[in-house]
Structure formats: C-alpha cells, structure tokens
Amino acid sequence: GENVEQHPSTLSVQEGDSAVIKCTYSDSASNYFPWYKQELGKRPQLIIDIRSNVGEKKDQRIAVTLNKTAKHFSLHITETQPEDSAVYFCAASSGAGSYQLTFGKGTKLSVIP
Amino acid sequence: DTGVSQDPRHKITKRGQNVTFRCDPISEHNRLYWYRQTLGQGPEFLTYFQNEAQLEKSRLLSDRFSAERPKGSFSTLEIQRTEQGDSAMYLCASSRGTDESYNEQFFGPGTRLTVL
Question: Count of CB atoms within 10 A of residue A11's CB?
Fold first, then answer.
C-alpha cells in the first residue's frame, strides 16, 4: 500500500519568514495530493491540493509543488503569520477506484511573533 | 451549518462495552469516509462508502468494527467489545462526485472515544 513520509516533524519560523514542509510517497499510481491544516482540538481543514497533471499550484501565500519522477511534494508558506501556527498534514490518494487518503505524520508549525 | 457533522463529540466507555457513532455528510456528497486519529499522528483510513455501498475496508478495521450507510445518507460506525487501544479520535469525511475530479474530502469535528 501507499506510504507517505513527512518532514520535518516540527518547524519554528519567525513571523514573516517562509516555511517549507516536504513529503514523499511510495505508490507511483498516486495522483491526488492534498494538504490539511489542523488546529488544536479542531477538524483537519483542506488548504490546498494538487493533481498529478500539474507541477505547481499557488493560492495567495500558499503553494504546493509536485515532482512525480522523484515522488515528492512540498508545501510552501510565505510571509508567515502567527495564525499559520498549526499541525499540517500531507496526504496522497491513488484514485482509480481507491479514494482513501494516506496521511503523513504531520508537521507542527510554530510562527514566532 | 452545512458541513459534516458527527455525534457524539465525546464518548467515555468501559472496556468491553459497545459504542456507536454517527456521521452526517454534506448533503450532496455521495462518498463518505471514516478515519481514526491518535495523538501526534495523521488520520488513518478505516473504510469508505459510495452511496450505500461499502467499497473499501482497511486492514485496521478488525471484526469488532462495523460501518453502515443504509440509505446513502448518514453513516454509523460501531465498535463492539471496546479495548483500551480503541481510544482515539474517529473522524468522518465526505466528498462529492462520481469521478476523480471531485476528491476533495471535508472532515467533520470527530468523535473522541476514551475507553477506560
């Protein structure tokens, strides 16, 4: 089955700096890669996703890049703000009748004011 | 609130008891998923429904776990003879569409189960 590795497990940045979180996946059939933000005690919320037919997607301060050959994808957050502090999860799905998401173990991001 | 809802939000039970959780997906969503999340981990897939059909089950889903979605709307997850290792947050998610174009999964608030 699919295996998703996520690094780093914790990340501290100064407000205004950029943050990068990296994930690798094992199943070359995976074609959908969402990122979720989970604040303490709350549900995971989808913040951005990318499909295998594109290499990069951007939404304001958030961007995701995908390298299918290397089987890795990354989340980039620019101009970080204290409200970006949360746990971020990457995930992968193979689609093609299998819609389960396989999640990484999460990255706890702390933005220091 | 038109998001995914789950009930109850918290459940404390004694080892060996049975528990049942309910999930109400977003109304136009025909896919429904159950995940389990333990502290410091990402959600782990348990099972998936398309309409009323249960199409996938994880190896994590032992014989003590059963899920239903009888009319393709709400779903229930039952755990029989609970064990302390079942303590976790049980998350429900839903998504719409009949092809891969609509795979965005929206999560409910979860049911936190504590087995004493």
Answer: 17
Q: Cβ(B23)–Cβ(B29) under 8 Å?
A: no
Q: How far apart are CA B105 and CA B91, in angstroms?
A: 11
Q: What Cα–Cα distance (Å) separates residue B3 from each residue in A112, B23, B29, B93?
A: 32, 11, 11, 10
The residue behind tokens 């782990």 is B44
- Residue-level pLDDT at A52: 83
Q: Do A93 and B107 touch (CB under 8 A)?
A: no
Query: How far apart, in whole angstroms, are the C-alpha atoms of residue B25 and residue B16?
Result: 29
Assess whether pLDDT exceeds 90 at residue A100.
no
**B39 to chain A nearest CA, in Å?**
10
Residue B42 and residue A104: Cβ atoms within 8 Å?
Answer: yes
Residue among B31, B103, B107 whose CB faces A44 most closely: B107
Give first-to-last CA distance, chain B, whole Å.
Answer: 33
**Could you give the CA distance from residue A70 to residue A80 in angstroms, rounded to a whole number?**
27
Instruction: Identify which of B41, B45, B95 has the shortest CB distance to residue A105.
Output: B41
> Who among B40, B43, B109 is closest to A103 (CB)?
B43
